[in-house]
What we know:
The chain is mostly beta strands. The strands form 15 sheets. A six-stranded mixed beta sheet has the order 1-2-58-57-56-55, with no helix packed on it. It has a five-stranded mixed beta sheet with strand order 30-34-33-32-31, with no helix packed on it.
Amino acid sequence: MAALLNLSASAQQTVQGYNWKSVQIRGGGFVDGIIYHPTKKGLLYCRTDMGGAYKWNNATKTWEPLLDWVSYKDNNLMGVESIALDPNDTNRLYMACGTYTSSHGPNAILVSDNQGKTFKQVDVPFRMGGNENGRGNGERMAVDPNNGNIIYMGTRLDGLWKSDDRGSSWHNVSGISSSMVSPDTSTKYWSRPNGIIFVLFDTENKVNNKNTVIYIGISQKGKANLYKSTDGGTKWLPVPSQPTALMPTHAVLSADGMLYLTYGNSPGPSAMTDGAVYQFNTKSGQWKNISPIKPDPENGKGFGYAAVTIDAQHPQTIMVSTFHRYGKAGGDDIFRSTDAGNTWKPIFTGDVKGKYDDSAAPYVAHTGIHWLFDLEIDPTNTNHAIFTTGYGLHETYDLTNVDMGKPTTWTVKNIGIEETVALELLSPPQGAQLISAIGDYGGFVHNNLDEPAPEGNFINPHFSNTTGVSCGAQNSSIIVRVGEGSIQVGGGNIAYSLDGGKQWQPTQSAPFTGSRSGSISVSADGHSWIWTPQNNIPYITGDKGNTWQLVSGLPVNTRIVADQVNPAKFYAMALFDGELFTSIDSGKTFQQQNLNLAGGLPERTRNRGDVRGGQDRIYAVPGKEGQLWIATFDGLYRNAAKINKFQKIAHVSEIHAFGFGKAAPQSEYPALYLAGTIDGTDGIFRSDDEGKNWVKINDDQHSWGLILQITGDPKKYGRVYVGTHGRGIFYGDMIQSN
């Protein structure tokens, strides 16, 4: 039975139980770090750049999300900068969370004493950039293996910080300052300083139950980038004779006193054109370049090195990964040495090549290995290793085959990880359950929400980003998508299907050379398509893209929606200019009217949600000719008898996403779905009576940070699809009461 909230009586807002599941894509984003507990078999975590963190469930063989409780207002916490574990307490977990150093949202250390079931949030004054350049470096945070009270955290902009009370409070370490850290000016992408990227303890040196020897690495070149303390972190000096032509990316200290470091000429995942692998003997002070192969940037054969790992049971067995070796001698690779780097064997580009099994996430077959920024050998199993990519993880259980000249097999280890960004969602009236437009990996047609699409992501053409997808409301077999074609697989930036998404083909032409991305609208009968390419004015085709003509009467970047009943009608608006546009000639021309919103137009401000979200948009009601809703960031409106006069819906104060679904039984009006704030309560809501009353359908454990898109299913009452920023796509169904 639904529980009544303490809200105004007129709103009659209730909470209804929903069962939430991920629409299965698996991965779809950059997993930038893997963190094993050094002694507890099967205990490991992974972090992502904007989709939270996960814990491995060894019983179910799936990843379990740890940050789905993060609210919209705290969504900056979804980017995980670093994870640290206490080697002597398997329950202790620390996560440094903050997506952007420029964000006004919180930066926090999340402290758990039960492996992530619950957290204490400790807001901190130092800034983090979990989705900025260098996010694959690390680990920036580490627990003293001889004293679990002590934790160090290296930051991007604010020097080195320390906690003496298991993360409850933090203070700046005076021996290391932000002035020692230089910005990376080699790239325009996040050119702010990357800062201190790793903290390593030498466990053999301790006094009074704490480590005395500590190393930190700084992401910079041309000056010292490896520092050492021999007094437990009070004083820091640069390590003598260190290489400074490149910047470190990862480091690991072996049990026999060898420090192994990978280097590049950028932090990554921005491009690298040079790199190296070095061994530093911490006992003798000697440095040695042990790079498996040397880059040749002057001849176009440049690349860097990103990851390094050691076999805990065999300290002379090490592995490293190349970075940005695309199209060069077979692409990025992992090199393995069993003699401390004196000799190496490649895993994927040698005479004996490793094999990929992508059956758990078929779309991976369309995307090569890239952003291989972390690599870990299981500390309790020499044969087991995992590496990261821009779309998730791969693992092998026959790693030592490399040593015997046999191939290894690497399977996708993504079950449970959903990290895509939903840019638009379409649940057509007939056919497929869901068609998604997502960032980086194009999009998918899901006929079964609980399994990955067997054909993988969109092809013919394959898009890197799909920014718009639309179907004919009365003829949903016709579907059109627009976006940005993949560099790897060409074919243009628009495609259409005449069979509900089973097969796709590019149009014969585009409005102009370079037309890409933007939004697409398909008339109710599927005949007319209006494409507004990015930063341009709309164009229309009535012959499946063979020819295009300019749409008159509309400004640049106008998003157009089709009437869901009458194929001759389209609508658009310029919200802040107070203009409503209507076409009654199938989209060829539009007439402008004044847009009248009850209470006046909203103010044009910067803080109106993510521009890719569903706010500040106009929506046409399924099955109701001429009926429109406008979901502004700060209010919800519907048109009355006159098409340009809109009434305001009470109690709705903030909107991030809005959409329609199948009407409730005994109702003829579509259900409304909204992500935002109603009567001061944040959440996801459904209304079955045209916005008079709302039901909250999510709980505090299902918030997912930033939500960009929402739509109901026109085929099943109560089903809703929620597209997040980095936690993939969810679908929810009502829990039926007995």
